[in-house]
Specification:
This protein is an alpha/beta fold and about 230 residues long. About 35% of the residues lie in helices and about 15% in strands. It is globular and about 50 Å long. The two termini are about 20 Å apart.
Length: about 230
């Protein structure tokens, strides 16, 4: 039912597996991605689709989508997948792809979200699970949770705390799909999601945590501290 795309160590993949979610296929753009090893150890089919082995990114994505469809994947989860998906893939899984991103979107989209949050001097950033569309981190938001930016934070320490939130938020979003179906994502994006869903903002995070849907910050949990790198997702 669930297909996961990952480019690095696959810690977000591991969070899904630890929750017992029905992951049936894992793919990567990198033949050496540790996420593939995690899948193999869990007895899950895994494959690599390096762009260099295909005549175009579109052809690679077409074959990747076909491989997932052959395994009856209903929802595609991007868990640290560092590639932009092209039209053939998006069209094969319309509105059935979600991504986890290390900021409170729409603030700081793209691959340098953590560094940009620090450069802007914001006091709060966070993690977002959103539906993937043709833009860069522009799809409807499903779940968000804020993370404080602490004095002396580096990209590594801040991203480590964000990653701890990602490891809760992404399984929660996938569980929503497993329990209630695809429409739950659009319910959440439309503002009627479960407690803890944070409303879309309008600019960079700044002085305090965003209000949760329904007000009062209900369901928002602080993150702890550890260490890590972007490639660990």
């Amino acid at each position: 039912m669930i297909g996961v795309l990952a480019s690095g160590r696959g810690t977000n993949l591991q969070a899904l597996l630890d929750e017992g979610l029905p992951v049936v296929a894992v793919a990567s753009n990198d033949t050496k991605a540790q996420a593939l090893d995690r899948a193999a150890r869990a007895g899950i089919e895994a494959a690599a689709f390096p762009a260099a082995e295909f005549p175009s990114r579109e052809e690679r994505d077409r074959e990747l989508a076909e491989w997932l469809a052959e395994r009856d994947v209903e929802l595609v989860v991007l868990a640290g997948y560092m590639q932009l998906l092209t039209a053939p893939f998006l069209e094969r899984f319309p509105e059935r792809i979600i991504n986890v991103h290390p900021s409170l979107l729409p603030s700081f989209p793209g691959v340098h979200a953590v560094e940009e949050a620090l450069a802007h001097g914001v006091r709060w950033t966070g993690a977002t699970v959103h539906v993937v569309d043709e833009g860069v981190d522009t799809g409807p938001i499903v779940l968000q949770e804020p993370v404080p930016v602490l004095k002396g934070d580096t990209p590594e320490t801040l991203h480590a705390r964000i990653r701890e939130v990602e490891h809760r938020l992404l399984p929660a979003a996938v569980r929503m799909f497993v329990d209630r179906g695809l429409s739950v994502f659009w319910d959440a994006a439309g503002g009627s999601g479960p407690e803890g869903t944070v409303q879309r903002g309008t600019g960079p995070e700044s002085t305090g945590p965003p209000a949760a849907s329904g007000g009062g910050g209900a369901g928002l949990r602080p993150a702890g501290a550890s260490a890590g790198q972007e490639s660990e997702r």
